Amino acid sequence: DIEIKTDLNNKLWKIWADEGNIEQVIMNLAVNARDAMPKGGSITLYTDNIILRESDVRNIPKSRPGKFVVFNFSDTGEGMSEEIVNHIFELFFTTKEVGKGTGLGLSVIYGIISQHEGWINVDSKQKEGTTFTIYFPATFKEAGEATAEKLSLQDFHGNGEVILLVEDDSEIRDFIVQALNNNGYRVYAVSNYSEALRVYDQQKEDIRLIFSDVVLPDRNGLELIEELLCKDSHLSVILSSGYTGEKSNWERIYEKGYRFLKKPFSIAELMHSVFLALNEK
Asked: 101 and which of 52, 96, 155, 195 could share a cystine (Cβ 3.0–4.6 Å)?
């Protein structure tokens, strides 16, 4: 059994947020807490207002001065090692058994919080539990005033543009396809260089953007981009990689001026990059 405890400030400041996104953050944290407590335990939800000054931010990672609403989500579960904590927000990172977790939950949380201009910190000790502390900037404007100033995924929504996605990892490929389809884009998804050439030749009248992993099983994504640009110099391009060394081909990508999206990335970062790539030509 899992006990739910709350310690909520009933005079909480307002934040500018999407209700569905905040629900998703809480539900994903709850699922992770449940999985960390197979024999039961407790979850504590805490909210409060906080003013961070210059002297405060030195002791709080990722923070900045200002007025914030803070949300703590704590569990008494198994906890995590420092090494795992350092990777938990990476796309598709999971400590669960194969088939029992996609590794999407915490990376999605990170993306949502970043989209709301906040940040999340983690404190965890093995056998003692985990606390996620989330900071959202407080707003003292009415909803109508803030709307005009706030960017959201809707600002990067597509209009049916066609994207050729080249990604050999099936989980990452499915994740990107779903995100793009849900935000107004059409996608042809393939796993290697040769498939990309075949699909491009069949659909070249429609394809506007090539989104390719740098490291492909048969050849290099950078070579693919350059071959397709020889066919149509007006194509928009995004290259992506989780590597930081020679395999990323970063120097060549930088020299050529191609847009680059480093893995792991959030949905918001993906949509922003796609929107900019399509609108810079």
From this structure: 96
Q: Could you tell me the sign of the dihedral formed by the alpha carbons of 128, 74, 27, 241, in that order?
A: negative
What pLDDT digit, counting tens, does each position of 41-85 carry?
999 999 999 999 988 988 898 899 999 999 999 999 999 988 888
100 and 12 in one domain? Answer: yes
Number of domains making up the chain: 2
User: In this structure, which amino acid lies at residue 155?
Assistant: D
Q: Give the range of the structural domain holding residue 113, as residue numbers without chain letter.
A: 2-137
Q: Side chain identity at 204, as an amino acid letter?
A: K
Decide if pLDDT at 250 tops 80: no
Per-residue model confidence (pLDDT) at position 150? 47
Residue 142 has pLDDT above 70, yes or no: no
pLDDT at 265: 78
Nearest to 278 by CA among 188, 166, 164: 164
pLDDT at site 92: 52
Q: Is 34 exposed, middle or buried (0-12, 13-18, 19+ CB in 10 A)?
A: middle
Handedness of CA 112, 118, 123, 129 (dihedral sign): negative
In a domain, residue 271? The reply is yes
Is 143 domain-assigned? no
Please give, one letter per residue, the 3-state secondary structure of the chain: CEEEEEECCCCCCEECCCHHHHHHHHHHHHHHHHHHCCCCEEEEEEEEEEEECHHHHCCCCCCCCEEEEEEEEEECCCCCCHHHHCCCCCCCCCCCCCCCCCCCHHHHHHHHHHHCCCEEEEEEECCCEEEEEEEEEEECCCHHHHHCCCCCHHHHCCCCCEEEEECCCHHHHHHHHHHHHHCCCEEEEECCHHHHHHHHHHHCCCEEEEEEECECCCCEHHHHHHHHHHHCCCCEEEEEECCCCHHHCHHHHHHHCCEEEECCCCHHHHHHHHHHHHHCC
